[in-house]
Amino acid sequence: MRFTKKAVALLAGAALCLGLGACGGSRGGQQAGGEAGSIEKGATIGISMPTKSEERWNKDGNNLKAKLEKAGYKVILSFADDKPAQQNADIENMVNNDAKVVVVAAKDGTAVGPAVEKAHDAGAKVIAYDRLIMNTEAVDYYATFQLEQVGVLEANYLIDKLGLKDGAKGPFNIELFTGSPDDNNAKYFFKGAWDLLQPYFESGVLVSPSNHGQGVTKDFTVDDWQAISVQSWKTEQAQKDMESILDSTYAHGEKLDAVLSPYDGISQGVINAIEAKRPDMKPGTDTWPYITGQDAMEIAVSNIAKDKQGETVFKNVNELADAVYEMIIEIAEGKEVSGINGEFNNNSIDVPSKLLDPQNITKDNLSDLVKAGYITQERFDELTK
Ligand code: BGC
């Protein structure tokens, strides 16, 4: 909520400036720093992505690279194989190649701090891409999607499907997962969802009967999110965790009504576990739980078409690449970065942020992914047949 108030304050401040026409200069951190036109065409820009093994980061990295190359910049694009040390080495390599801007989607938002500090000290602008870089002043900008909104969309899907607003009493059995403990985003996703789901735990309509995370009850708080996290967002880890939940609590035909999953890869792990342990549960019937997700991965498109997954949160990474591309061009031209519509605190500073809107996708609007140019009709047809 604090964030929303700040965003409002920022907008109000901007309106005041327009009205008075006397707000030259800018708030600390919002000005590009260098003189006008300070980054020449042909200069190097570094893009450091966390891993190749998750679909989105390949799209993210390659989209941005293509746009920057088209505009005449040299690009170093690296993928860190989910290893913080590798990511730090990748960023050092960018600094050694005189990168003027370094764009980082952190594997570990805290561990990457020293590397971006070196980049910043060498005069590069640092942009946190999708995931915030924590505990350092060396972050100039952040671009991402409204983080809590992701969890809000997931929780509202479950609330809707279970009929909770219509007064359904349950109790409904739900199991909950959060993302990687080293990713600052994961807490925000959970906060968005938990703020909506917790009241139903309070009233006893939702229960989580397993001991996952030492038990999720009405007293569970957002700060406990790491107890139900999945290291590195891994499908295999989620599958293992879900298998032990099923073994301990659902081995005798007990009904599982819903699973809050924050990412399509985790949803896939959950689905694998259900298929392995509870063959009596059938997609498309009421024996199968409502399962959420995020990223509109190809596997999720297919799972949604087959009624295995109910929902995913679509983040149009083409738009995120556009947003960051515009930031870089404005920085290069020595202009003030436009489109800042919020700020996030990284335990050190408030980082000026560009926040885009995520979209809810279910079977009903699955083809919106084609309309958005995110997936081709041909691929969509292959995945959904
Ligand atoms: C991103 C999500 C993604 C997750 C796993 C998060 O930081 O914001 O879009 O699903 O990482 O890669």
TrEMBL record:
<keyword id="KW-0732">Signal</keyword>
<dbReference type="Pfam" id="PF13407">
    <property type="entry name" value="Peripla_BP_4"/>
</dbReference>
<feature type="signal peptide">
    <location>
        <begin position="1"/>
        <end position="22"/>
    </location>
</feature>
<dbReference type="InterPro" id="IPR050555">
    <property type="entry name" value="Bact_Solute-Bind_Prot2"/>
</dbReference>
<dbReference type="InterPro" id="IPR028082">
    <property type="entry name" value="Peripla_BP_I"/>
</dbReference>
<dbReference type="InterPro" id="IPR025997">
    <property type="entry name" value="SBP_2_dom"/>
</dbReference>
<dbReference type="GO" id="GO:0030288">
    <property type="term" value="C:outer membrane-bounded periplasmic space"/>
</dbReference>
<dbReference type="GO" id="GO:0030246">
    <property type="term" value="F:carbohydrate binding"/>
</dbReference>
<protein>
    <submittedName>
        <fullName>Sugar ABC superfamily ATP binding cassette transporter, binding protein</fullName>
    </submittedName>
</protein>
<feature type="domain" description="Periplasmic binding protein">
    <location>
        <begin position="45"/>
        <end position="336"/>
    </location>
</feature>
